[in-house]
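REVIEWER CHECKLIST
Item 1: Sequence provided? yes
Item 2: Single chain? yes
Item 3: Sequence as submitted:
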Amino acid sequence: MQCPKCGYEPTMSEIQSSPDQCPSCGVYYAKVSHLTVDAAEEKPSSKLAGAWRGAMLSVEEGRERRAEDERNRIRARNVSTAAPVVVTDVQIQFGSLVTLLVKLAFAAIPAAIIVAIIIWGAVSILGLIPLLMH
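Item 4: Structure as written out by the authors:
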């Protein structure tokens, strides 16, 4: 895809990092294509006609963005290798966090019992070694 403003042809990695924006000049592709359409059209005859045309362009831009997002999601699903993910923030309500931590505490009790049994068994076996050596 070539930038309509500067003519720059981005590489595949540049397209993946910023599919809606030109890496060379920083312009958003959808806005430049609308600007070229707007420049070709004549001026609206009234404020209402201008507002209507602006609303229609906004709706059309939203549709194009959603379609592009959907295409990007489909492309992302078709990629065979998993992309690395970095979680920067998690927003959770206080009550949900308390519930999660209480469940975690109850789940830790059987795990601690199992670990204690394993350690007891290992210490018992190691304690028998000196008796067997005599």
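Item 5: Key structural point noted by reviewer: The chain has two domains: 12-78, 87-134.
Item 6: Recommendation: ____
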